[in-house]
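Hi R.,

As promised, here are both runs. First protein below:
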Amino acid sequence: MLSVEATAIPDVKLISPKKFGDHRGFFSETYNRASFKDAGIDLEFVQDNHSLSATVGTLRGLHFQSAPFAQDKLVRVAKGRILDVAVDIRASSPTFGRHVAVELSAENWKQLLVPVGFAHGFITLEPDTEVLYKVTALYGPQNDHGIAFDDPALSIDWRIPHDRLVLSDKDRKHPRLADLPRYFG
């Protein structure tokens, strides 16, 4: 059993799997293809990814892959807390350039479905945060792209001052949305 809610951009979904707890701990079915299909989400995931970010303020993103390696992502947090962000980069979309920001944590047990045509990124809000996500396409290095996390046109509030962010060199060099080729119609 799971609950699916549309966000401010309806193609981005917030998913809440059931969690059953007792004196031993808990059990949760975080993904079941049949249950997702019954909820209107029929995707074939081909890879699971797991990241650990040791420091609060670690920002990963904003990333996406272009065709034929474009990915839907199902993101959840196993330990800690993040602000998860999805930016609509579909040129013909009425929500082009807008974003959804949702807090995901081990405590709230929510997941975010980020569809193809969105750039994705997150920032850690607790130390030693572990993020897991499923993707519908394998990694294609030649199709790996990004958008500047600090693009003023996006107006993303990352909740942590930019001078305290921990970023990779790659994530510091992504172009602004206005300078990005149109990968998605």
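And here is the second one, sequence first, then its structure tokens:
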Amino acid sequence: MARMAAEKVHLTEEKATLLATLYGRALDARSPHPILGDTLAAQVVERIDHDFARTGINRRSAASVAFRARLIDGWATEFLTAHPDAVVLHLGCGLDTRAHRLDRPPGTEWYDVDYPEVVDLRRRLLPEFPGHTTIGSSVTDLAWLDQVPGDGRQVLVVAEGLFYYLDAARGRELVRRIVDRFAGGEFVFDAMSGLGLRLQVLNKPVREAHAKMHWAIDGPQDLLSIHPKLRCTTMLSALDLTGPGLPTGYRVAARLMRAVPGMAKAAAFYRLGF
């Protein structure tokens, strides 16, 4: 069989960060002791004509990428186990293979949403499956929600590596509209405080992509004010991550950073129910 031609990719700013996270998952999959084990990500990297070294991701930072994805995968799995006929909105999906990694119940409807050029690339590189729909749109151009049935089912909204790139007012309106449209559900995502955003000048993948971050979330109170139905069921500081595969260097750095005022909220993971 002839080898498929490599895809040339030309993405800028926050769209370009999808290459960094893809490469991080691929590096993890190739490691002797994978944290996430995303072998499909490794296959996709092989099909892209790009100098991935320029993303700023190395084996050390790849472990953090994989650990973040594994945590959110676990929360998503818990929700889908409890609600096997749920609708999933994977916002800012990039080239994430989450829909392929998870053991999705057959009644799940899965929507991957991202910019049109990202979705076009995704369709060329990743297989679709029954119950799967891709939508090419900015997540804050809310007309895309009309393509998703609000028919009384529960919704799982996954927004990994997304919210801090959104304009705060438009991001809040996105959350508000989703809560109003569905009978109930859960948001799972990561966020950064104002301090966390300022510290991104030290984040090489963000610098290399010339990405700009806007929406600071300084704690649950910033989220619960969006809609009266929202409740925060989990807030987990990135400094409190635990589990197999967490790099020793990360544990040591986290212990030191806890002593710095405000660092515990600089980066955090949230579950919001409604």
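A quick note on the second one: The first helix runs from residue 13 to 30. Let me know what you think.

Best,
J.
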